[in-house]
Write a structure and sequence with these properties.
The structure holds 2 protein chains of 2 kinds.
Chain A: E1 2-10, H1 17-29, E2 41-47, H2 52-67, E3 73-79, E4 82-83
Antiparallel strand pairs in A: 1-2, 1-3, 3-4
Chain B: E1 2-7, H1 14-24, E2 28-33, E3 44-47, H2 67-77, E4 82-85, H3 87-94, E5 101-103, E6 111-119, E7 135-142, E8 146-148, H4 151-159, E9 163-168, E10 187-191, E11 197-200, H5 216-229
Parallel strand pairs in B: 1-2, 1-3, 3-4, 4-11
Antiparallel strand pairs in B: 5-8, 6-7, 6-9, 9-10, 10-11
Classes of the chains: A alpha+beta, B alpha/beta.
Amino acid sequence: MMKVTVTVMLKQGILDPQGEAVRQALRTLDPVKIANVRIGKVIEIEVDSPDKAYVAAAAKKMCEKLLANPVTEDFTVEIGGKLV
Amino acid sequence: MKVAVIRFPGSNCDADLFHALKFKVGVNAEYVWWGKKSLDEYGAAVLSGGFSFGDYLRAGAIARFTPVMEGVAHLAAAGKPVLGICNGFQILVESHLLPGAFLHNASHKFICSDVHLKVEAGANVFTGKLNKGDVLRMPIAHMEGRYVADEATIKKLEAEDRILLRYCAPDGSVNDGSNPNGSTNAIAGVLSEKRNVAGLMPHPERACEKILGGEDGARFFKSMIEGMKG
């Protein structure tokens, strides 16, 4: 099994009200000055294939077609802890 | 002519929509389940509001890959009217039948309240029988209603008269205070390039009975049905 980790984040510059709400809550926990909090999604996929290049290409396609919305989100794909 | 009321697991405005179409504007409406691939027997399709597939991943993202969306895309390509309301709008955007995307409301709150909407677009099958500048009152009920698109798309929508409805004040003026969710240019509804696909976040089906606070939703549907007759 090859484990693929996809991270989807809102594009920079897009207001993330969820992140902002969490930033304000964190401020009450600790006096440390938090400038910014952004919230995204982590998606773990297990693929039954030994072919890393094939899996990387397939994962990118999954991101473009479904896992991320290219209008509002950026994504990264990691296989074995390394960005591909 | 039959109008398909598309139902997904998690749709929850379908019965209101069916009631409004069948009993308020007298259309031959029929429920269509998401597994049905061909909609060739229908003259139009309406996608109702709700939380299709639990809004998992993003609102509308999973519904896009259902068999019925092939039928909807086919109807749209044939020039037949396709309307998406709330979650239906989100599904049409995820399906690329309409441009743009949705984000969480700027307030990060679920908003359920009546809003005012200005009829913006000129000739189109949906609001064509209303007057440009008319103000309609209908409820919105959504968490991900902040309409966004890249700058070029917004410019194109504006230039091509494809803003169906805009959030406004009761007098029809558009300002920051009358924009409930932070949508770009206070956009509440848009049209496709061929003007036969439309989406709107407000719920006309919830504003079709006087006892429920207003009938402007019925005005919207009547315009659409008249528009479909030509």
